Amino acid sequence: MNGPLLEMKDITKSFPGVRALDGVSFDLNQGEVHALVGENGAGKSTLIKILAGVYPHPEYGGEIVLDGSERHFASVRESEHAGIAIIFQELSLVKDLTVAENIFLGREPRRFGIIKWEELYSRAQKLLDELHLQIDPRTPVINLGIGQQQLVEIAKALSQNARILVLDEPTAALTDAEVETLFGILNELRSRGVAMIYISHKLDEVFRISDRITVLRDGKTIETRATGATDEARVIGKMVGRAVDQIFPEAKHDRCEVIFEARNVTVEDPSVPGKLLVERVAFRAHKGEVLGIAGLMGSGRSELLMAIFGAHPGRKSAEIFVDGKQIQIGSPSDAIKQGIGFVTEDRKRYGLILDQTILRNMTLACLRRVSGRFITNEDAEAAAGERAANDLRIKANSVFTVAGTLSGGNQQKVVLAKWLLTNPRVLFLDEPTRGIDVGAKQEIYGQINRLAESGLAIILVSSELPEVLGLSDRVIVLHEGRVTGEFTRKEATPEAVMSCATGHIRRAA
Amino acid sequence: MTETSATGRVKLRTSALRAYTMLLALLAIWLFFQWATIDQDHPYGLFLGAINFSKLLQQTAVTGVLAVGMLMVIVSGNIDLSIGAIVGLAGGIAAMTQGWGLVPCLAAAIVIGLVIGAVQGSLVAYVNIPSFIVTLGGLQAWRGVILKLTKGATIPVELPFFRSLGRDFIDPRIGFALAGVAIAAIAWTNVRRNRMRKRHGLPALSLAATLTRIIIPSIVIIAFIFLMNKAGGVPIPVIFLLAVALAGAFLTANTTFGRYLYAIGGNPDAARLSGINLKRYILAAFCLMGALAGLASILHTARVGSASPDAGTLMELDAIASCVIGGTSLMGGRGTVFGAVLGALILASLDNGMSLLNVENWAQYVVKGGVLVAAVGFDMFGRRKG
User: Fold this and answer.
1) Considering only residues 317 to 356 of chain A, which have any Cβ-Cβ distance to chain B shorter than 8 Å?
2) Is B334 close to A355, i.e. CB distance below 8 A?
3) What is the pTM of this model?
4) Would you say B133 and B76 are in contact if contact means Cβ atoms under 8 Å apart?
């Protein structure tokens, strides 16, 4: 066959206020593994969702050409029909059903509506044998490890005659041995002519498995090269590419004494016993500085903060010192009492009560101090809330506006106000600007600098590298739950930090 | 029901709008029954006459008290299906322990409710068993305990004062005295509120607004006392209901406890990360529910005049229905005591009015079921548009 199996030409896609994809082109040949790399937010997931029919035809611009003819996928079902199978990061198996039931879910061999169980299991067995998988089709999926579940997903995709397999961070949850098994299967599939799009942050794996690499940045295709004709340094350079924007206000923070220190923080995955999300991490934060924690998704950044804050659901151990004194934090209220505030990620899930007023959200963590131990005082609360809302320039009719009706930027300011009202000395910020517009971002950056100048120690986690580099006085980098590098502001180049974030350990200078 | 913004303007919130809609619905139901009960002896209708209205309120008392407790449980994101059985058990124990004297036997009913609430609440909060399951188990188990204790017999109420709690009226003069106290309290809180606002640098309400806030409730209170006194005075169970409703409204709206309940039901993750001890407050809500079920059992037993082993059956569903009709979300985080009591009043009005009209039993059930579903449907419709 001539020409590529799949071509995506000049794809554009906008969300309210954001242009997620801006003229991306991407093609895929039969029997090829084509890697798609880029920072978080570069547009990889959006591109894949367009291919999968999650965003149906007229919602995006550009064309998708499959086998030489243009296609418009109106639904996930249509794209599946065309032979495209996507294995998402969050697995989509029904945990309580068996392997075979999952593989044929919705397509069970049946007669007059009655399932032919023998055929179901024998066909599943055959499929698993072809892939050399040692999995009993009668095992409930819940009894399998994450790695094996991933392989079952692949088997399911192949049973639907998938010609194009999209793997989104397939090794994020796998052990080294499981990665080997997966790569064996991918090689086998490649030789059978299956085309694969491989999305991963782990560049060493990308270089091992892929034939070509495409780098996306800020919704644009930066370059596509044969794997043999490029190297990790070049790819990292293309990924970070841009100069740190001017949107970060120049700030000079006077570093004072150490106010916060964490030693030996180890955090276990609550759903997979024995798997460590964070392993023996240590860091300290000085009064008046911004400490950035960089790392890619799944590097354990949020878990680290959650565990220190006393909010991790699983097992953890940590030694925490505030002002040089060791303290025990068993719950968020202990942490708040010690002067630690935590602007959590995902404001809708962890930060706000969406159908309550701005005021009630702002005073939730400081109610007893602002309003009274048992009997609340609405007016005292309103007065404190008004001040906070003015300080942060929250745009709303009044503090009695329902939080869910605000824009993302204003919602984020409400969460920030909530924590500032607790009078913290140490403030954790987890993804403080996720999904908000540039203007609001800039305001929050200014606020972060003001807070540091006023003597807070700020610990900033963000998956946007320019943000971490632009704001932090020091940066530590996490990769798979371990610290792989520490930089001062001057040393922290995007290339050096990204290199540590993808697994290279920086030797102490 | 209105929220005063910091600029001193009075604003109508969606929750206030919902409250007014419910009041209008109640009024419509009342006017309908008033019209439907017009006959030769009652040219203006029977339903809202002093005697029937007094009876209607007495019928509301038990469900209303339970609805206040249920509201707190539901707002926290839970449910309590066992309260009917608790009413039966606590009432039975109160009747059986009459030999100990009046105060001990009444205290026994409330304490047994509190203890059951504590046990169930602990299982929900600390063992993480869903409240539906814990209290579904309770519904059966406590009913079994009554049967064992009473051996299936109905026990009459012997103590005259006990019985009068469910049947008698307070002296009309005391009624007026209470009205005076209530009006004074309303005036005082309004004046004090304005003083507090000034101290926090917020503009005070205008004199006209302050006077309206004092005069309108005062008129309602005085009219209510006059009407009740025509029928012998305010019934004692109604005094209990008013006290419980006031306390419940204060607890949910003006205390950290109430605020935390709404936060826990609204977004448990955010509440936990804001330093709120979820388990403690969920346990407290169940304890209050249990104690109120104990109180309701006293009122119910006193009104019926005896404690039977099947007393309280299905009362949990009336309490839940009252909350839901009153705008409470079963998902938690939303609802008011005012709405829950109003819901109880709507249910009692339907019962009372349809009985007056001699509507057949089966049709009464159908209408009550329909009203429940329609109320929620109406609410969902309004919310989607809003």
Assistant:
1) 331-333, 335-336, 342, 344, 349-356
2) yes
3) 0.80
4) no
